[in-house]
Design a protein that fits this description.
Length: 396
């Protein structure tokens, strides 16, 4: 592989917003539209950011991750949305059926493969599919707003096209259970998830004891964060666990899922991060890709249900970091974008800056362990499970 002319690439097609469960569903496609509007108006989508379209993948590509029977079920309800299949997660409150559901999901998978292809072939150093990150979908079942698991499909494409070791890091507030399950026994894929504990949040999995099966022991890494964890605690946990393990794994490429439902204003979760903390996490992932994977970084979207005030700002920061030109937190949001947000709200106000005004300082794990802290006990539980498998010391 050789370095290409484009340092970064945004994979986007207007048809991607067709992944739409309806007006009352939390996963509103307007969040993607507002992100692209904000990024454009702030000048993020400049000459240093190539644009690429997407094509839907065929059934054979979907079948590298999903069962034939499940793909047939998705096709059937796409043609007849009134025919629900709750036995495979289709037609539930989380995953209502809609016309062209199969095509919409296959297009998102195609966009994630294109992002992976651009990076793996050297056409781009970084690539982003902000519509991707549907990490809950299982081989034979829809789950948690996710029909096809574009993340796993893109990782499978990388493995089939020469990648020997892929590291996947998931910072969504919900455990990346689908991706973990698909690669649980595959030592070529490291799955790392930092999420609110399953004791208080869907899908109820992702405990420290889930470490990978058989020869893949140590390649599933889970940090189950206490509800209420804010920027300082989240960053403490990330830096105490993720970089040491990824360094030892020595990936060829980094694939990340940037769900921003960890925000304090998100209506579906109980974490308390700010846009500033989320921005810091994106910078940390960029730096980790530079250090461990020669800069090769495929970034995907994910959850995020404060769709007007939070998601567009968080993901515009992500896009700017992917493009190589981070936006300063104090940057003003453009008046035209604010007007659009207010109109969608039917009144009120819109964020005036790209910051929540929070500090991203945190206490390093090397500064000491506090056994009275739920957060520190969580961090140590993960380190105790995983670190010895890599020859690392779990204690500070």
């Amino acid at each position: 592989m050789t370095a290409g002319p484009d340092p970064a690439c945004l994979v986007y097609d207007e048809r991607l917003i067709g992944y739409d469960f309806g007006p009352s569903h939390p996963m509103a496609p307007v969040r993607v539209d507002l992100t692209l509007r904000l990024a454009e108006e702030l000048g993020v989508c400049g000459a240093d950011l190539a644009r690429a379209g997407a094509s839907a993948v065929d059934d054979a590509t979907l079948a590298t991750v999903h069962t034939d029977a499940y793909i047939e079920a998705v096709r059937a309800v796409s043609e007849h949305p009134e025919r629900r299949r709750p036995d495979v997660g289709l037609g539930t409150d989380d995953n209502p059926t809609f016309a062209h559901m199969h095509d919409a999901g296959a297009l998102i998978a195609g966009a994630s493969i294109e992002a992976a292809r651009r990076v793996w072939t050297g056409q781009a150093r970084h690539a982003l599919n902000v519509s991707g990150g549907l990490h809950h979908a299982m081989p034979g079942r829809a789950s948690g707003f996710c029909i096809y698991n574009d993340v796993a499909i893109a990782i499978r494409w990388l493995l089939d096209n020469g990648a020997a070791r892929v590291a996947y890091i998931d910072v969504d507030a919900h455990h990346g259970d689908g991706v973990q399950k698909i690669f649980y026994d595959d030592p070529r894929v490291l799955t790392v998830s930092l999420h609110e504990t399953g004791q208080t949040l869907f899908p109820g999995t992702g405990m420290a004891s889930e470490i990978g099966g058989g020869d893949a022991a140590g390649t599933a890494v889970n940090v189950a964060l206490p509800p209420g964890t804010s920027d300082a605690g989240w960053l403490r946990a990330f830096h105490a666990v993720v970089p040491p393990v990824v360094r030892e794994f020595k990936p060829d490429i980094l694939v990340t899922q940037q769900g921003c439902d960890s925000h304090m204003d998100d209506p579906l979760t109980n974490l308390m991060l700010s846009v500033d903390g989320q921005r810091a996490s994106y910078l940390a992932l960029r730096d980790l890709a530079e250090e461990t994977a020669s800069g090769r970084w495929v970034a995907l979207g994910g959850g995020g249900y404060s769709v007007l005030d939070v998601v567009p700002r968080a993901w515009t920061h992500l896009l700017a970091i992917v493009a190589g030109h981070p936006i300063e937190p104090e940057t003003l949001t453009p008046p035209q974008w604010r007007e659009r947000v207010v109109s969608l709200k039917g009144g009120g106000s819109a964020p005036t800056r790209m910051t929540d005004g929070r500090s991203t300082a945190y206490r390093s794990w090397t500064d000491g362990y506090d056994p009275a802290s739920w957060l520190d006990r969580t961090i140590l539980a993960t380190r105790n499970e995983i670190f010895p498998l890599y020859g690392l010391d779990p204690m500070p």
